[in-house]
Design goal:
alpha/beta, Rossmann fold, 2 domains, 6-stranded parallel β-sheet, 14 helices, globular, Glycosyltransferase family 1 protein, WsaF_C
Amino acid sequence: MSNAFEQPRVEVTRRYRQARRLFAEHGRQGVGNWLRRALASRLAPFVEPLDVRPADVLAVDTRVPRCWSSLPLSGKGQMVINWIIVPPSAGSGGHTTMFRLIEHLERSGHICRVYLYDVYGGDADYYGARTRKLFPGFAGEINDAIRGMADAHAVVATAWPTAYPAYRDPCVGKRFYLVQDFEPWFHPLSARSELAEQTYRMGFHAITAGRFLAAKLSAEYGMTADAFDFGCDRAYHLLKGEGKRDGIVFYARPEAPRRAFELGVMALQLFAERHPHITIHLYGKRIGRLPFAFVDHGLLRPNELNRIYNHCLAGLSLSMTNVSLVPHEMLSAGCIPVVNDAEHNRIVLDNRFVSYARPTPHALADALGAIVATPDLAGLAASASDSVSSVSWEEAGRTVERSIRHSLQQSASSAPRGHKETVQI
């Protein structure tokens, strides 16, 4: 009988010692995270569901070239554009950029329809109402992509899972691809990374956020591509010059590996040890306990965020893939961004007031420290803000509008008279 109880006793003792070590190093939050991971590993499905319906993947054979006809377009006439999107969440930078472009097109007299693509069986009416709440400036229709799309001049995929229904749907409309990041990098080498990469071989015309992605897709996948530059919403992000700058701010997104949260935390730990008088602000998501003192803001509205930027000397914004909107917003408010040094960041930002550092804790902490030690911080903040004062989302919208129209006109002029696509899906 004693042998029967020996193994459970050993296991309980081992787990107790493990919990004590975790508590000593990470506190109650560390123990809680460990317990949640252990429970999740038992309850989670054996195979995570894909972000795309298998039926949509099976309907796409990228080895077979395909082209799409479009509704007739005359001169500078009105365009009808279908946008396929995954349901948005609060704080999503990708959706924010997308709807800024869509709203510009609507203001310019074009018809935009949104089609929601959700593989988890979400209710389209619910997510449609949520989309309108998050983006009240959008006036067009919101429908369910799985039920099919109406004919249009253009059909725009906006994330790799949405490229599959864009390819498969029988509706009329030239296919475009709004590419805001290189999404195969979001995943380890896997079915997901391969399925994401295959979307660049579907024959769509790419419209990319920044020149880095346009060059990469053209060189490596032969895609036709146009790029728009990031804008800056000066209605929210601007230099106010109110009060003393006495902090630094970190865009913290632990659920997005490409934002290198853990690396940022280690850099801030070093910085805090060297500059204990500087307040550290975190926003993006509630974080909890860390090995240094900080103000935990969680998700913020743009005006709340701008207030923090205007009280900070520098900001830490890390991106292992295409750069986020954050460095432009920081610059606009006179907060100097520290960014990991990478080709994709330098090409897209192209701003002399950005501080680049190797992606190591010590190099990033040194870069933050160098900004804090700058003698004329007020002058630096004003110059940084001026450097992006002419950058607007209206110009980005005009670029996208010109790109879609020009591509449609090119397709119309090159199509044989009387041509009509007959590919069966």
